[in-house]
Structure formats: C-alpha cells, structure tokens
Write a structure and sequence with these properties.
Strand order of the largest sheet: 1-2
Helix content: 40-55%
Largest sheet: 2 strands, parallel
Oligomer: single chain
Number of strands: 4
Order of helices and strands: HEHHEHEHHHEH
Shape: globular
Length: 184
Amino acid sequence: MLAASRGAILVPTMPSIYEPLRREVDARGNVDARMCFYLSALLTAADQIRSHLIAGDPVVVESYFARCLANHHALGAGIDIALPSDLPQPTTYYLICAEDERRRRLVHRDKPVSRWDVLAEDAADRINRAYAQFPMYRINTTGLGPEDVCRAILATDKRGAHRSANPEPVGPHPYVLPPVPCRS
C-alpha cells in the first residue's frame, strides 16, 4: 500500500531464493546463525534496492537492517558487525501502538506463531531498547487502519529527511568537491 501510494517498487527483504532455507534456519535454535542468514538476505536485497535506485525508481521495503540487528541482539546474538558504508540509507519508520492493541493484533495475525515469535515477545523490552539506537520516525498506529497508517507515514516528512539530519542546504564550498553523478 505504501509502495503504491509513493509510486515505488516494493522490494522484499527476504528474497524469494532465500525462502526455502529460511524455514530450515528458523527451525534451528542458533541465533547467531539466524542473524548471519538474515544479514545475507538483507545484503542481497540491498543490491536489488541499489539497482532500482540507480535506475531512478523509488523503493519501499518492509524492514531493513535495524530490525535484523535489534531483534537478533536482543535475542542474544553475540556477533558484532560493521555494515558496509555504501548501503542505501532509507528513511525509516518505526510503527508503534498501545500494548493492548499490539497484543490484539498479534492474536489476529494470519501466520503461525514460531519459536522466534515467542522469544521476541519475551524480549520485547530489549528489542525496543535496541531499536532506540537507530534514527527512525516513530509513528503511533494505535486505532489506525492500514490506510490511515499509510497516510500518517506520507504526512510525516515530505522531503524524506530524518529529523536528526542537518537541515541546512549544502552550498558551494572551496574545500568540498561537487557531486559525482552515478553511472548507469
């Protein structure tokens, strides 16, 4: 819905070639292995995102590195990584809602509850604290339907800059090189 409203391409953060192995990895209990698997999928998705952006196509993804890192570290992953500096840097929205509504939504989800879902519920406070390190717009979705959530996201920031970004325009400076255009 958000991708359609922005005229963007929806890129899944779990590429289809990963899906069969995803079920196998999720069936195991090794949080470090699972984190590495999900990072691999995200890096593959980042290549797809980069290709679309170079072609001039806007992109929407349902989750990205913040979710992977916050969840896995809160679940006990012991792997510290440095993400590549050339990753596409999206405007990120963190959808939140009141606890009673969150629980109600979980009950009505159209997917089976996995062991990882149960672990994430037990680690919800740690996950929320881990998310705090990432620059994200917090969107309160309490009482909102999907269309209203989409409208709230679209109304948050029309230029796509995060509120912690420097809003000053970049002008010519004798020690700053001009931008280099991307090659197609």
